[in-house]
Structures are given as C-alpha cells and as structure tokens.
Amino acid sequence: MTCDSATESPRFKVAAPHDLSPRAKWLRDYYFMGNERAWNNQYSPFTTGTPWDRVFGEGDYYIVPEIYFYIGTKKTRGPYATSLEVMAQQVPLPEGFWSHSVPERRSIFFQEVMINQIPQEIISDNDLLAGGRFNTQLSKCLDDKEENAFEKQNLRNRQVVFKFHGDGFGNAGATGGHLIANYKGIVENGFKSLHEKAKDAHDKLGPTEKKGSKGSELRAMMLSAETPAKLASKYAEECRRLAEVAESTDRRMELEQMARNLDRVPWEPATTFWEGLQAVWIAHMLIIAEESYPGPGTSFGRIDQYLWPLYKKDVIDEQNITREFAKDLISSFIFHCNTAYDAQIKIGNQGITSGFGQLITLSGIGQDGEDVTNDLTYAILECFDEWNPILEPKPNIRLHRNSPDRLLDMIVSMISRSQGAPFILNFDERSIAGMLVEGITSSDAWDYACVGCLENTMQGDDRSGTVNCNPNLAKSIELTLWNGKNMPGNKGISKPGTQLGPRTGDPASFTTWEQFYDAWKTQVGFVIKNTVDVYNLTEATRAKFLPTPYVSILVDGCIEAGHDVRAGPPRHAFVTIEGVGFATTVDSLLAIKKFVYDDKKFTIDEIKAALQADFKGTKEQAVMQALLKNKAPKYGVDDPTADALARDAMAFWASETWKYKTPTGYQFRPGMLSWNYWAGEDAGLTVATPNGRNAGTFLSNAICPTNGVDTNGPTSVANSVGTALGGKTSDGEYCSVLPNGASHTITFNPSILRDEEHREKFKAYLRGYIENGGSALQINMLDAAMLKDAQDHPENYGTLLVRVTGYNAYFTAIGKELQDEIIARESHTM
Amino acid sequence: MTLAGLVKIITDASSSDDEDTAIVFEIQKLSTEDGPGIRTTVFFKSCPLECAWCQNPEGIDRQPSIQWYKQKCIGCGTCVQSCPKGALTLDADGIHLDRPLCDACGICADSCPGTAMKKFGTTWTLDALLAEVAKDKAYYETSGGGVTASGGEPMMQARFLAKFFARCKALGISTAIETCGLAPKPAFEAVLPNVDMVMYDIKEIDPELHEQFTGVKNDLILANCTWIASDLASTGKPFWIRTPIIPGFTATEENIRGIAEFIISNLNNQVERWDLLAFNNLPADKYERMDKQWTLKGQSLIGKADMEWFQSIATSVGVTNVHWSGLTR
C-alpha cells in the first residue's frame, strides 16, 4: 500500500462527471452550454399593462445586500424593477378582473401566464419530465389605489432596511422560498384533494365571510389548485404533438407515456414512480413561478421516503422499469432543477448567484428511530455522484447513530473523489433535540427535512422563513462599549452620536465582569428586537399586498384557516433569526473578561481607544492587538472555560428570539446560518472588535470558530460546536438551543482520505461528530488555491493537519521554506 | 557511552520520575498515524537516544526549552524586558537567546503578546492530562482508537505512565505506546499491563552503526523487544515494529534484511505489523529554532521506488503485513 508521494498524480481530485447514461450526459452537457443554448429558462416578466404596475418584488431581496444598489434609492424603482417592467409582456385580462380581490387576481393572472403565455416545452428528446420554463417576474396585480398604498409602505420599508444594514446590524426582509411543500400529499392524493379541501372550506363559510378575505383567499386557492392540472393538460398536448413527429419509435413511446402520465398527475394521485416525479416537478416549478423567486430554498424534503413506495413497486417488486431508467428519470429531474439558475443567465457566470438551494433530504431515522435508507436513497446519490459537479438540487444526508456503513462508505467515497463534499451532512440526534425546543413533538420531529442550505423544517405544513432575519451579533459588542451608540469614527449610516440602542452605561464605570456581561445581554437583546421590528414591517406589507395562493394550498393549515401563507400561520409557523458573527462576539467577550476584568491588564477605555484606531495608533496598540488575538481564551478549541461562555452566550441570544411574534402570527426562533454575510457586507460594516480583529475584515462564519483559531483540529472544533449548542444532559440526552440548526464548515487535508485505512478513520470521525458535534456539517477539502493563500496567511490554516508517524506537527508558525515544503507535498500545480 | 553509564542516566531519570506529574511537550488530537483508529498522541519529553534524524528534537532533553518563531514576531521586545536572566536580546536580525543563561522558566513565552515565543515542556498532573485526553473519547470509540504515548521517549517517565495508562483504561480509553525500547525491564513491567498495543522501534540492526546513529547500543533494545513481543502475544495484544528509513543511515538493504531476519528468528509471528517510515524532512525548522545543527538538513526525500523496494525485501525474507508511509520523492 502506498501513501502520499510527490511523484504521484495531483492529490487534488477535481470532481468530474462519470458513468452517465447517454441521455443524462446529453442533458448535463446541454445545461452547461449556458448562454449558448437555444433554449433557456431566463426570467419572463409579465404585466397587467397598467402604467403603475409593479413586476419586481424588491422585498424578496432585502436579505441580499449586494444588490441593494439595483433596488433603487429614496424614491426610485431602481434598475431591476424598471428593466423588468420595460421587458414585461402584457397579459390579456378577463372581464371583471379588477373587481376581484388581490389573491383572486393573482391566481387568475398566474394561471393565464402559465397556461397561455409561457410556452410548454419539452427540452429535447432526452427529457423525460414535462416542465421547462418557470422563471417569471409577475405583476403584483394591484390597482392604482392599492399600488399607491403599497408604494408608501414599500419605500418606507426600503429605507428602514437600508438603514438597518448601513448601521452594521445585518439585514432582514420577508423573502420567498425556503419551504418544503406538501409534495407527499400531491403524490398520494393529487391536487384534486386540495381543490376539494378548499372548496369544502369555502362552502362552509357564511355569506359575510365569503365576501371577506377568507372567501377571497379560498376562491383563489381553488383556482390555484386547478393550475397544475391545466398545465399538465397542455403539456400532455405538447407531448402528443411531439410524439407524432418523433424520429424514433422509442421516443414516440416515451412521449406517449409522458402524455398519459400528465393526463393523470398532478391532479390525481401518482400510480408510478415516473408519475410521482412528474407530479413533484410540476408542483415545485409552479411554486418558483408564483413567487417569481428562483428556487431559494424551495426544497423537496425526504423524496427518498415519499417516492419509495412507487419506486419499490416499479423497480424492485414488479420491475416495470429498470433501475437505470429510474436513474434517467432522476437525471431529468436534476436537469430541470438546475435550470432555475437560468433566471439571470445573461448576467454572467451562467446566472449563478448564491441565492438558490433546492434541497433533497436523504436517509435519516424513521418513526421508531430506525434507519430508513433505501435503494432510492442510493440511486439518487449515485446520480449526484455521476453528475458531480452540479449545483442543484442540493443533497442533505441525514446521519444518526445507526446510519449504515454502506451509506457512510458512499459518502466518504464521494468526498474523496472531489474537492469537497457535494452535499451537506445533517445530524439527526442534535437536530431533533433542537426541534423539540420549538414545540415539535417527538412523534413528529423524526420526519424533519432541510431547506435553504441545512435549516431544519417540517414537511408540507411548515412555512418557516429561515433566512428572513440575519442580525450581526457582533454589533452588540460595539453597542455595549459605546453605551448604545456607534463607535465614534464608525462610518455607519446614522449621524454620529445617535442613540441607537439602550443606555447600558459607560463601561468605564463597570467594576466587575458581570456588569459588562449584563450590559452586553441588554444590547444583544436590542439587536434582536431591532431585527424583529425591521422584519415585521416588511412582513406586514407583504401580508397585505403580495399573497401567494398557490403556495398556500401546499402548506397544511392555510386552507383550513382560509388565509394565505403570507398572511397567517400554517400548522408550523416560524421565522428564524440567524445570528451572524457568533465566534467574533464570543471571543470578544472572552478577551474583555480576561484582560479587563480578570488580569486587569487594560482598562476598557484603552481597549476602546485601540478599536477606534483599528489597533494602528501606537505600538502599544499593536501589542494589545496581538494579546487580544493570541492570548485570550477562544471558542472552538475544546477549552471548557471558553466553551462555557460560548454556551451561555448562545443560550442567551437564542432565548431572546422567543419573545417575539410577527404580525401574521409566526413565532420567531433562533438559528445560525451566516451565508456569505460574515465575509461580505456585514464584515465590511463592522468596526474593529476586541478579539483582535481589524475593522472591515471577515467575521466568523456561522457556528465556526474565528478564522485561524481552530488549531486543535476537527475533533476539538466539533466538540466545541456541540458544547455551544448545549451539549448533552447528564443522562446523555442531546440538547440544542437552535431549532433551525447551525451551519458548520470544516476544511480537511485530502491526505486523510488517501487509502482505505484512512477513509475508515474519516468515517469514524463522522460517527464521532454524530456523538459530539453540531446539527450540520459542510466538508471542504484543501485545494491548490487555498494552499496558495496559506502561504500568505498561514495563521488561517491551522487546520492544515500534517500527520506523520510520531511527529509533533505544528503548521501554525513555520517558516516559509517549510510552508513551501508542506504545500509542495499537497499540491502539484504550484 | 558504557552500558553502566547509560543505566545510570535511566535510573536518574526514573528517580526523578514523579508518578503524579509529567513533562509533556505536545498533545496532538486526531492523530491518524500513531496507531489504530483516531488517537490523541501525548508527546512526553526526554529521550535516552539522540538519533541523527530525530523529528522531535525538542523532545530529547528532559528540561523544557524555548523556541522563537521569527515569522510571528512583531518586534515589540516584551520578552526581552520580561526575562529575569537577561537571556534575550533583540536586534535587526530578531531575537537571540543566550541558551546557557536560559533556564526555560517560560516567562518570555507567557509575556509574548503573540505566539512568537514558545516553551516546550509543560508539567501536567495526572488528573489534568486524563481530562484532556478524555475529551475525544467519542472518536476513540467510533474508530477503535485511543491514547498514544510518544515523545521523546515516554518510558523515561514510566512511573507516571503506568498510572496514567491505568486511569485511561479505567475510563474505557484504549492505550498505546510508541517506544524506542531503551528502558529497564521493571519499568516496562509496570507499564505493559495497562497498554493495549505497542509500537516498537527497531532502527538499526547493526550494533556499531546503531551506536553511531543514535548514541546508544542496541543490545538492551533488542533484548527488550524479544520479551515484550512475547509478553504481548501471550495476552493477545498487537505488537508493531517501526523502522525509520533514513538515507545515509538506516536506508540500506543490510539493515532491512537484518531487521527482517531478527523478526523472523526472534519474534515468532508476534509482530502484527511492520511500518517502514520514510525520512521526514519537515523538522529542519525545529533545529534552526533550537540553534542546533542538523546532520540531515537539506537531505532530499527518499524515493518512492526505494520504499517499495525495502518493503519487498522485508516481505521476501518472510515478514508479513509490511507497510510503508510518509512523503517520498
């Protein structure tokens, strides 16, 4: 057996597609032609044609600060909105359109667009699923009075959101996507059942109610429930048309079968695996189409579970289709998911932005805690492996104590053949512990799935906004130090000297750590409340003016209550407050505690002066920065003292979120997904922090330790993450104070997967993570680009584990020659 | 060095070997090369050998020592001012340490604002060390791993080690030792009952060459090897041999063949695995920081083909389960 050798082929395996069927290969290649394709799924904007019509919903993008510029300034509509309006196609409206309520207008408009305005297209002879174009920008269908009222609120919200962000608080906004619709219900009962439900509910209303909002919404829902059936009908027509001119008998038969499928689904329950996938796809694409927001977190849930009975029947029991054909069906599905990115394909980078995430959740435990991995799980994973690299749909694999070896082997194999894991791992025991905190019972919580990137959600009856609120927790440190104001010299949007937060006192007057920590608690509580207040404005506006009746029928609880999912709660209704900059905040607290209160080495005023000068004023400040950075306890290295404060601070800010509800009755709750805010906008707007961080530089990422701190390796950091979430009770029960989960990324040295023996150790590490770690894990592998960066910033690469038998390896402080040596051993592209 | 002189050194070490504290210079988590599974490696300071290729020279002396990291230094001079012995000076080339003056009190390392000054060799109590290694117990369990005592030579602190291993076992943590084998038999007898596996170095079979390369003869080492292998076999515990393959030193056909023959004749199927470890050139910077010359500075890595060849020699003599590892040219 061999190990690493400088003469072997490059260590860095860049994933490449392999073993694709001809059909799948064609689809993949076609997708990656990008802008060169004859067909694409870019935004199709549609308007009612009124001069005041609004097509672009800017509220969806308040959580994407990078595009604030395109939203507009004080009163303008901004480039996005105006360009879409200019391009928008006018839609013929039926008689009496304007006499209907807004939800009804929306559902009429939506149906007209999907059935008659957007063409039905089968994307080549290799496509097995109908449902091509679905990226829309739809008129909000408001009349002039409504539009006026909306515009007032909209502009006010915009300014509030921009100010919130501009003062370094982060971002918040009622955004779309981020749900798992009731796909299971569609597969098992069809849209017919939802139509019936809505009709029953409508029929039961009294005359006044019928005239009111409930009546409007339910009628809109009834109409919406018919849209998928009508679309399927038109697609069936198109399939039959293509069948007549098909060049091969095989393709003719496929198209005829597709037409028969569409005659049945998604109106009726699915009776085959093919129908099942077709039903899910149409249901799903229409969500994206109605919200006009391409696939951000609109996720599929546990598709390997709810399609398993049909797959089992067709592939295993009755052998109606081969496993290979089933994988071809999955490949079609994968192809269509990726076309969500076509929305902005002409903008460049194939239109790919960070805003997507159509998740598929695989494996995990069943009702009795048993493992439910099945052959469909593996078939789906194989497809992902064969297509890799591919961006959508994103697999989340649920691991637990009894996850089968075969699954772990596949996971490790996939990781070892690409430069990073093409999936996120979710951890059942820790995740479920968190969900119990928000009131999901243990008889339900086992069936959770993920949306967005990894956020834990229930399926089919849960519209929990998961990235609607993203406060910068580190702001609380600045507010504590400056008694509720911005640091002087902070280039925030508010006038200098403005009292932003509560007056918690001049910290120079505090004589104990407890006083400082209490003041911090008040300020972080304010950061949460401020976030809530901003978010609630956007939600109230959206609730009043921007209903989505189609989406609403797919979330249990809305039909029953007769309200839109944006206007009232379904069965489970949460809004997540995702805390950003956690480790930066905790490490800052730890540094202040040690140097100001325990060792009394610096006064709080000296720390403040150094922060104002960004540690660059005097030599003493440079020394202070080094001390704060290097000699204070840190979260993330399995240090019990540091982690105890991390745990306490986490529990505290998390507890603050539970105090609030939204105007539509949703409950706020905590999570920790920092997306890119920690490296982008928030980082730029955060002043220097007492953990030794310079102004404007990266914050910490989600629940990860501060960059460069993690020098004790992956076991220590996993232990710290688990501790921060709450660890375990003395009886060994898992605790988690973050029901929505926490994002954790670890970068490994690819040498850990170099042979069978080491892959077994890596598997064992994952099983250890199940025991001790967090709720989700993204595994990256070091690549050549990272190593180049490691030469310039070796302090950020403490995770570059060099493991040699009997060798005490410390990479963190070595000379350039040795860095070169280590880097050469890792990369052969340098 | 005579055997008597050597025994004296060991006896001295043992007599000052406190059974409740130990001097350790590193604790490494997620060790993947120091025994089965995922392990925590505890590097014990002090070694009776001084191998030319030593990859942890900071572990040879029992006394702690100081190293200065040029790239981390911000030139603040705090260490210079803090040193009670005045052993530090700062000039255009950086920090200079007058080692004869330095008693490694470690005040400079504590006072350094950054991580430019480090003291190698910290005293750990039994309780504290146990708490530290217990942190990763979950990973030991999922991987069949545990704690490995390495260094330096852990047997130089055998009395502590015996207690430490007993405590590990009581906690359900598996134990392993990486040893050069140069310790008195009673010391091994005290430690072995609580060791689950042994990784034993046979570096050079020729007695004269061994003394030349490491500073000590190999007769006691080979004698210990024989009875320890037998002892472990009778208790069903794995016994592994390690041989560093160092160009210009141990990397010869004679040596590998000789060790292989020793294994076949003396260790009767008692060796579960034999690892050939390729020369590691990474320690060069350690020697510089210790103001020491390194015989092997600039030595290029051994070739992959050579490692495979040595492996084939070992196998051809009849030894089974021979592995090689490390970076090669």
Descriptive keywords:
heterodimer, A: 830 residues, alpha/beta, five-stranded mixed sheet, four-stranded mixed sheet, 30 helices, 16 strands, 46% helix, disordered N terminus, B: 329 residues, nine-stranded mixed sheet, two-stranded antiparallel sheet, 12 helices, 22% strand, globular
Structure description:
The complex is a heterodimer of chains A (830) and B (329). With 830 residues, chain A is an alpha/beta fold. In chain A, strands 7-8-9-16-15 form a five-stranded mixed sheet. Chain A has a four-stranded mixed sheet with strand order 4-12-13-14. In chain A, strand 8, helix 15 (405-416) and strand 9 form a beta-alpha-beta unit. The longest helix of chain A is centred in the middle third of the chain and has 33 residues, at 513-545. Chain A is globular and about 85 Å long. The two termini of chain A are 26 Å apart. Mean pLDDT of chain A is 92; it is low at 1-10. With 329 residues, chain B is of the alpha/beta class. In chain B, helix 6 runs parallel beside helix 7 (185-191). The radius of gyration of chain B is 20 Å and the shape is globular. In chain B, 52% of the residues are buried. Chains A and B meet through helix 24, helix 27, helix 28 and helix 30 of A and strand 1, helix 5, helix 11 and strand 13 of B.
